[in-house]
Write a structure and sequence with these properties.
single chain; 851 residues; alpha/beta; 7-stranded mixed β-barrel; 6-stranded mixed beta sheet; globular; binds alpha-methylisocitric acid; binds iron/sulfur cluster
Amino acid sequence: MVFDLDMITALYKQMPSRIAKARKVVNKPLTLSEKILFAHLHEDQKVEVFGRGKSYVNFSPDRVAMQDATAQMALLQFMSAGIPKVRVPSTVHCDHLILAKDGAKKDLADSISASGEVFTFLESVSNKFGIGFWRPGAGIIHQVVLENYGFPGGMMIGTDSHTVNAGGLGMLAIGVGGADAVDVMAGMPWELKWPKLIGIKLTGTLNGWTSSKDVILKVAGILTVKGGTGAIVEYFGPGAQTLSCTGKGTICNMGAEIGATTSTFGYDEKMAQYLRGTGRKEVADLADKVKDHLTGDPEVYAEPEKYFDEVYEINLSELEPHVNGPFTPDRAIPLSKFADEVRKNGWPQQLEVGLIGSCTNSSYEDITRSASLAQQAVDKKLQAKAEFTITPGSETVRYTVERDGYLSIFEKMGGVVLANACGPCIGQWSRHTNDPNRANSIITSFNRNFAKRNDGNPNTHAFVASPEITTAFAIAGDLTYNPITDTLINNDGNSVKLDEPKGHEFPPKGFDVKDPGYLAPAKDGSKVQVNIAENSNRLQALSPFAPWDGNNLTNMRLLIKAKGKCTTDHISMAGPWLRFRGHLDNIANNTLTGAMNYYNEKTDSVKNQLTGEYGPVPATQRAYKAAGTNTIVVGDHNYGEGSSREHAAMQPRHLGIRAILVKSFARIHETNLKKQGMLALTFANESDYDKIQEDDSIDIADLTSFAPEKQLTLVLRHKDGSADTIKVNHTYNAGQIEWFKAGSALNLMAKQIVTAAKGLAKPSAKKAVKTAVKAPAKKKSAKKKVVAKKAVAKKLVKKKSAKKVVAKKAAAKKGAKKVAPKKAAKKAVKKVVTKKANAKKVVKKAAKKKK
Ligand code: MIC
Ligand code: SF4
């Protein structure tokens, strides 16, 4: 089935004129990222020269994807917005709530019985509101999106940070919190700070043991976990066109680990092949017709330093396989140096488990290349020394690789095939171990390796590598082994060497699947019932957060000053807690339990200033809340890195924490905090972090004059009677300050809808509705069953008369493919530019000032 053809046709029809208009305004050649951004400006957004990293801009994304663990909260919010049907194509995918224990069949059945209530809820909400539903077992959201919905030049958002995977098909696909998804599903404009642009030029071709994964492992090493913050990474150059479409997906997917807003590649033959290979010939044909608009202008790629804020170059021919970790995805180690690092750092040398698959690496190419190694292990009589698991990304991939005999090869090697789901990647791994705290090593082809992520054990050293390298290590069972140079002793006592992996980009017999696991929603969902059992401990209807009372915040107590890394996994752990993702009060009991207290270097142990006693973070916070005491959380750099889970913002809000003050934020988390009506603040002077003391009582002295680009003042009253006054920055614009005042963005939206409905007679109300609710793409009569006010609000919105698209071919730009690599790359990676240093500095300064 080909989805969205009408939508794609309409977008491609408008693209040339939109890009031409933008080109006229900005008066320079355009990168691919800019073309897609400009082509998706919201209809009320004026085209202008936007400040990179500065301007807030409104967009109209083409579609929304949500996974089960985040969809629950997103849909609970959508339900309370009072809108009868989603306004843009949207889907829900059941993948995170599926266990990894005994193998696909049993695990899937057990998960469906354990989380049946949630799956039924998601299915019925989807059915009611016009959302496509992918059942448990259908696959991991990003692989399913790539196979079915991704298309070159499109813009989508998804309630998962790895939504960025669809950049492999030339999209701008961006991870967001559920509240952002609600905006888009409600037809409202979606706001994003105009991103900075990082260009990565790829030359050469991959060979031998190196794969696409190594490109992003290398990039993560260069840019670190926060180097991509606020930026789109655009890959180009002759090397890019040699990478398979799914390989490009892998690179974009793990771009989440450098904090990038998203990553993308220009449309090329590999993408066209993938579209055709996955049954979307029509989309490829459409894309071919506008292909010049689906890649950057040739001038940009010829002199990238002029158009990107930063440019790097990677020569694929010289790139080595990498292994990243442990505990952070940006500790990039070339394979040739890995054994030394293992010994030098005293990491457990024995490899206990190798895990391949996940949304990042489960393409046909990945599986067949890894299987070629597994086959060698069987043929060369090598007994795999480590446990080995395989997680296919989708039922289509699983069915096809099983048909082609690859799964049985893994099984012969001793591998266990898990369900098509996130499983071990998100801590749904029931690992067979006798000591849950034992130091040990595992290696995965996933993307994240924060402490405790996979199995809950803080001493599991998790390394990230390509599926090929993971498989080879699993065979050897030893982290000091280098498959490129070393031999292994087989069952006969002979020393044997693994040959380079070989695989197929596409199944020679084509993809096939019996039941892909898709359920289309009802045409008219108005009669569909959505039930939430009153005593459910999995689902809880939301109550609106209280609006701001208009006063300064005084006498706030410090709940925790977090030391070092504080990812969303530290703020709201996954694993066993995933089961409470639809129940805010229950999941709040894990709030910040993974964060390290600066003062005693312990997790989940903070001082209750009212009693002087130390206790768990959630219980302490509940005690403050009960006493009517406001609190603040202080953190380090890149606070909230990692996932898109808005629970990490909603839980603190629910528990009564008022402000989060850190050295810097990860993008999605900062937005999530704002959307939920929290104060997200950063130190104007980073060293002021040191001034915060455990027993402080803290005021925000000038919150009553909260305004864009205006610092706030904090007074820190210390226990000894002394005080410090510090300045803090924020990035709230006027609209976002309204979210804070209303208590949350959702409160504001609900208020706008009601106001608009009430003020029917007044023409001024029209404007409010227009911002609050956009007309659906196709006119649909508001059916009788819809509550009167909603119907009224909907009717108010008249679709703007479709402007005729002037089919002026925007200055035909040929030869985008002809980017000639002028200088032969000497090093594998070279930072080519920072000539724009001056310009960059200005932007940085301005951005700083703004905070
Ligand atoms: C992840 O990889 O961390 C997750 C689990 O997919 C999250 C979403 C979630 O927490 O539900 C993400 O990446 O956004
Ligand atoms: Fe699922 Fe892991 Fe991918 Fe997140 S990174 S979507 S948990 S497979």
